[in-house]
Amino acid sequence: MKKIAVISAILAGVVLWAAMPSFSELTIPLSSDPEPEAVSEPSPEGDRPPKPGDCPDQDDETFAKENRRNRVYIISSEFRIGPNTGNKEEDDKRPKVQVTDFFIDKYEVTARKFRKFVNDTGRRIPSDLRSQFDQDLEYPICFVSWRDADEYCRWAGGRLPTSAEWESAARARTDTKWHFGDDESQVRKYGWVRGETDLLKEHRVGQLQPNQNGLYDMVGNKEEWVADWAFPGLPEYKPLLNPKGPDSGKYRVTRGGSHLLFPHYSESGVMGDRKPNERGLGIGFRCAYDSKFSPGKLKKRKGR
Questions:
Q1: Residues linked to residue 225 through DSSP beta bridges, in sequence order
Q2: What is the tens place of the pLDDT at every residue in 260-299?
Q3: Chain centre to alpha carbon of residue 116
Q4: Gap between the Cα atoms of 163 and 237, Å rounded
């Protein structure tokens, strides 16, 4: 009887072992693994990232057309510049500035566009910047200095936005911490910021929701260089019409926060400052373009 019981136990163990899934079937796929065949939803990052060879540089005419098509017109506006404290009495003390009409890029400048600039001009760049051309070319370009950004925008027929222009475009005629309000829990609907996600993970431009002006990634993804020198102390905006900051300084202003920074830094009125030759994974830019409307037409167009 004992022999029969032992044999039965062994046979039951063999059956149980045969019914168990293999080790590979028990492995939980990492985020970089391909999705199981049963899942039909597309990846939030879109289709397969294009390899550099899949995206040859655009010819000049195609580049120019796409560049014009992706500019957004920002109508003249008047607003209180600088960060919101949440205290109305304090917030009302912020200087009120006017910014006249201009255009601004809908998206942050991508690695694909910056590569064309480098190839067309023969610009010498450091290896950490050049390495961006070996990744997904629809990521926003990073590791750019202020001069890199400034010269790209001039080459593309534009310029870096002033700090006031950038804030006007980001606020979209609101006076809250972000264009969508003051609720920090909503930030990740509009921008990639530091949080529970991988800090080093980059994202293609235009993946989340735009603001009311139709601009993407004005919240997070990359800090954006703007034209201004940073004020050494409290900001003094003079003149109040199209202010441009100090004539000189030690640091240049950045705006919008990044995927490396906490949500607070992505508020519409918050300004960062960086040395002009600083390069980093979290620093990119977008360009602005002059409008055909002159400052003299501001009053005529205000009631529109």
A1: 254
A2: 999 999 999 999 999 999 999 999 999 999 997 544 333 3
A3: 20
A4: 11
What is the rounded distance in angstroms from the CA atom of residue 7 to the CA atom of residue 13? 10
* Side chain identity at residue 150, one-letter code: D
Q: CA 67, CA 252: separation in Å to the nearest integer? A: 25
Query: What separation in angstroms does the CA of 256 have from each of 11, 54, 124, 217?
Result: 66, 31, 28, 8
Which residue shows structure tokens 């260089």? Answer: 225
pLDDT at 22 over 80: no
Q: Using alpha carbons only, give the angle 208, 44, 113 rounded to the nearest 5 degrees.
A: 65
Q: Among 196-205, 210-219, 233-242, whose mean pLDDT is lowest?
A: 196-205
Residue 233 is predicted with a pLDDT of: 83
Measure the CA–CA gap between 73 and 95, rounded to whole angstroms.
24
Tell me the C-alpha to C-alpha distance, in Å, between residue 125 and each of 115, 128, 129, 148, 279. Answer: 11, 8, 6, 9, 11
Q: Which domains does the chain have, with CATH numbers?
A: 58-302 (3.90.1580.10)
Query: Residue 75 — φ and ψ, nearest 5°?
Result: -75, 155
Q: What is the rounded distance in angstroms from the CA atom of residue 194 to the CA atom of residue 198?
A: 8
Pairing outcome for strands 96-99 and 102-105: unpaired
Q: Quick one: 33 exposed, middle or buried, by C-beta within 10 A (0-12, 13-18, 19+)?
A: exposed
Predicted structure pTM score: 0.78
Q: What whole-number distance in Å separates Cα of residue 176 and Cα of residue 197? A: 26
SS3 of residue 73 by DSSP: strand
Asked if residue 167 lies in contact with residue 215, where contact means CB atoms within 8 angstroms, the answer is no
Tokens of residue 8, six digits: 């039965």
**Per-residue pLDDT reduced to its tens digit, 99-110:** 999 999 999 999
Handedness of CA 55, 59, 64, 66 (dihedral sign): negative
